Amino acid sequence: MISPWDRWYSTSCCLCCHVRTGTIILGIWYMLINAVVLLILLSALNDPVQYRYHLTSSELGTDIDVMDDANICIATAISLLMILICGMATYGAYKQHAAWIIPFFCYQVFDFALNTLVAISVVVYPNTVQDYLQQLPGTFPYKEDIMSTNNMCLVFAVLLFIGCILSFKAYLIGCVWNCYRYVSGRGTTEVLVYVTTNDTTVLLPQYEEAVAIPPKEPPPQYMEA
């Protein structure tokens, strides 16, 4: 009987790429995104007056400093950690080191779980969509038109959008998992070479470098006295 893990196992992704190639591209893409975020955060630390987003009392009724120095430092550390994790996954897929792919896979599972919790919260508390729209600045485009829409339609649209994101993230998780299985399978599989003699069969592992075995010397001839 075929297990569910083997049934969904495939060495190709996106209908054309190998799972190793897909994991490398995905790791590079995540590194580029986090590198851009890191540059923005470092620029905000160097020039906080220009990049700091300050909401006035006319928008929310209170003065809230969203991006202070402590939050920027925390976000910078998270971006550096993400660049490290994505670089490990890219290197592990390229050099076929399965253990280096595990941190990136765990991050994907954690991110998927967070998005699932967001979808559950929208279902349990549908009024949170309207509350979130009310907290948006007054200059947000089409804010009044969106708020005038029926609440059930808004919840359905948000759930549909989150569902599409979760489906895409689940597919990427499957690609990275298949890459891990492929790399770990290549590292642990041993090909046995059968050496058959007249009376026994010996199992020997395959070595990268063949070792030349000197031929046995024939026994000395029998000399008659």
UniProtKB/TrEMBL annotation:
Keywords: Cell membrane, Cell projection, Endosome, Lysosome, Membrane, Transmembrane, Transmembrane helix, Transport, Ubl conjugation. It is a multi-pass membrane protein. InterPro entries: LAPTM4/5, LAPTM_transporter. One of its GO terms (cellular component) is multivesicular body membrane. The chain crosses the membrane at residues 28-49, 70-94, 100-125, 152-172. It is found in: Cell membrane; Cell projection; Endomembrane system; Endosome, Multivesicular body lumen. Pfam families: Mtp (PF03821). Its main location: membrane. Homooligomer; upon reaching the lysosomes. Interacts with MCOLN1. Interacts with NEDD4; may play a role in the lysosomal sorting of LAPTM4B; enhances HGS association with NEDD4; mediates inhibition of EGFR degradation. Interacts with PIP5K1C; promotes SNX5 association with LAPTM4B; kinase activity of PIP5K1C is required; interaction is regulated by phosphatidylinositol 4,5-bisphosphate generated by PIP5K1C. Interacts with HGS; promotes HGS ubiquitination. Interacts with SNX5. Required for optimal lysosomal function. Blocks EGF-stimulated EGFR intraluminal sorting and degradation. Conversely by binding with the phosphatidylinositol 4,5-bisphosphate, regulates its PIP5K1C interaction, inhibits HGS ubiquitination and relieves LAPTM4B inhibition of EGFR degradation. Recruits SLC3A2 and SLC7A5 (the Leu transporter) to the lysosome, promoting entry of leucine and other essential amino acid (EAA) into the lysosome, stimulating activation of proton-transporting vacuolar (V)-ATPase protein pump (V-ATPase) and hence mTORC1 activation. Belongs to the LAPTM4/LAPTM5 transporter family. This is Lysosomal-associated transmembrane protein 4B.
